[in-house]
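Notebook B, p. 112. Complex prediction, attempt 2.
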Amino acid sequence: MTRNEKIGRKETRREFLETTAAATLAGSLITNADAATEDRSAPQAQKTPKKRIAIITTLWAYLRHGQHIGDRFLVGYPWEGDWHEPQVEVVSAFVDQQPTAADRKSREEEYGFPQGDQSAERAREFGFSVYKTIAETLRCGGRKLAVDGVVLIGEHGDYPTNDLGQKLYPRAKFFSQIVDVFRSDGRAVPVFNDKHLSYSFEKAQAMVQASRELGFPMLAGSSLPVGWRMPEMEVPYGARIKEALAIAGSRSLDSAGLHALEALQCLVERRRGGESGIRRVQTLTGAKVWKALEDKSWSPELMSRALSRADLVEGITLKDARTQDLAAPGVLESIVPEPQAVLFEYRDGLRATLLMLGGAIGDFTAAVRLDRRNQVLSTKFHLPPNPNVVYSACLAHHIESMIINNKASYPIERTLLVSGLLEAAHVSRAQGGRRLKTPQLDVRYHAPRASLYCHT
Amino acid sequence: MGYGVGHLQFAPDTLTPDVAVKRLRIAAVVTEYRRYSHAQHIIDRYLFGYSWNGRHHVPDIELVSLYTDQRPDGELSRDRAKLFPRMKIYPTIAEALCRGGRRLDVDGVLLIGEHGNYPTNEKGQRLYPRYEFFQQIVDVFGNSGRSVPVFNDKHLSWNWDWAREMVETARELDFPLLAGSSLPVTRRIPQIDMPLGAGVQEALCVAVGGVDGYDIHALEAMQSMVERRQGGETGVEWIEAATGVDAVVKAMAAGSFEQGGWDPQLFRACLCRSHRLVPTREGFNHTLPTNRQIEALMRDPKNRNTPVLYRYQHSDGLKMTMLLIEGVVHDFTFAARLTDHPRPLSVQMFLPPREVCNFFNPLTHATEDLFHDGQAPYPIERTLLTTGLTAAGVESLFRKGQRLKTPHLDIHYQPTRRSTYWSN
């Protein structure tokens, strides 16, 4: 029996209450009864016990995904104009790394308070246990799977980067340890995987295969598909789409590129016939991007529409706050030092483009041209700012709902396809922009009809 | 939720491009044209264009003359005039409107009297010369025997009598007058409006900033929502204002409007609509603060403004609260208690960040509509009422929080049927 298990839930709860009572000046939990909130936050008499979840993460430190997603299940989150008390309960956690000294130092300068691992103090305060292995975490120190859901957050931390420029987060490795427990204990529960499934499409496929084989629901991906849009916009279900384009105001294909590709994918997957997979991928960099722009390798109008959705405009706007047309001739070339363009073609012929335009904007935007009257739809995938980063509340809602309903609200194939697309984009980039055939990305699925982005 | 217009199935990006029968020419009369001044945000949009309906939109209206009352170091008007030589700068308002000639020679006027070095009175009101500029504008109209539409940025004047006179003058000379803040027209999260004709019992706005600068934004945000209620606007009967942490803490503890506070559910809804809620505990990025934590946040010595509370009641009984609580939030949120709805209606009026401050896009577009249509896209009575409320709030503060009857705010009007906030 581990020390953690000996502490037990009751004792840690008491400890937590004492902490709360003592913390009058610093303030404490949102669940205090004197809240602005007392009339609604009082937990209802617990008729049905809350689902128990484990959090498996690379890092639990301030404003890292492990913290700002993980904390949502501890302190709640805003949802539809109210503060939602999660109907799941964190009972165990596994944290792979401590923040490095250099990381802590630079972030302490940025935020003005200690930036170490927070999992131990969270465990004490909220009455869960941190274990040394993933298997122990899922079994809460016992002999059998003892949770109803797993939240896997393999983002941030000190991991190597490969020659393609992909950070080798151990998501597939962690996932496989999770599945090992499911297999040996004869029971499987829903799993959420933050961001793309893996840097390797092969590993990603194996993850999805395991979930199918064992019959557990799986949700994954970025928060962008489920966050706010400005303006609110959805592709009519079953629309014919002629072309699509996304822009990420960033230089990081591996990190921001994934977000933008998922944002684009959640729009185009609604097209007539459903998702067909991707047959060709090509990543251009530097001057080749400007040449492709000149050659109209993507629709200049779609690019201009997507650019117009930005609220974080850079370039000459930073000089004196003036507005500007970023799509005017020569502007992007003068302010984007390291442009990248991922050009890809779906198996049904749809052409799409991701433009990485760090230096021009700081947002994620997209535009889609419908067949019908050549109509262009465009929007910004809004990222509410630090420190609240409310987009993770939108994501937490879908994670919680999967664990409670035992059903993912959108298909894992979306993230599988985008994981493979992202890898192929890196391979093409490493090969000097060679156009790659991607027969492996024969991923077909149908999108849910309902709009699942945040608009209530 | 089922409130408001709901979300669009798609954004109608492919509307026909703006087609003007005749290219209108306008003048801008401003206090100062420097980085981040309202004049810069609005005039730059006329000169460089701005994002509208998913395009870079350049107004089909020519800004041909400019008057700048002050020229602080680093101001932009002369540089902009070099970039846009058709925009001429004139030394007086009359000359700007007559473009150097003897008669009115523009089709519309932007009056942007916000920012600049102007005196403050004993009540803390910055004496921006909006009324004075307006008088000079209407003098030209009178002398020319012709009037054109005028837009006045923010409230009409710090002085109620002057504000009323401005609206009366516009009626007498028969020109459309548009005014107010960008808050009523900016994007909303979520994209909802007050359902037209809804029964509204109580409303609250939680925002930031200080008296005589940000109160008007919050009041306009609220008014743009509640004016859509059943029966339309009926005016305001009384107002009482308070400032300081102790007053707000006391009101927060009161538990209801009747007891001197507000409906706690509305407050909770506002905090939950905020995307910039100040964390209360080190290491937590987003928690819902308790009343005690809110008090601690309000007492942070780093806050530049002390909290401000306005409570007022409309003639039809609608109860209103405006809270400016710097240190707790950094954004504008609104919540209302609707008849027959168990949950409040709540929304954030979204202010896109600097540098480009895109909340000026819908405001600038409203001024274009004013000039193109010869008709204000929303009623001037809204801003007349909020101007009166701002002045009355300041007066109540000056009289140590005394409740003031406001028979002069007997302002009745109907809202536009169509929603006018930025949703394209």
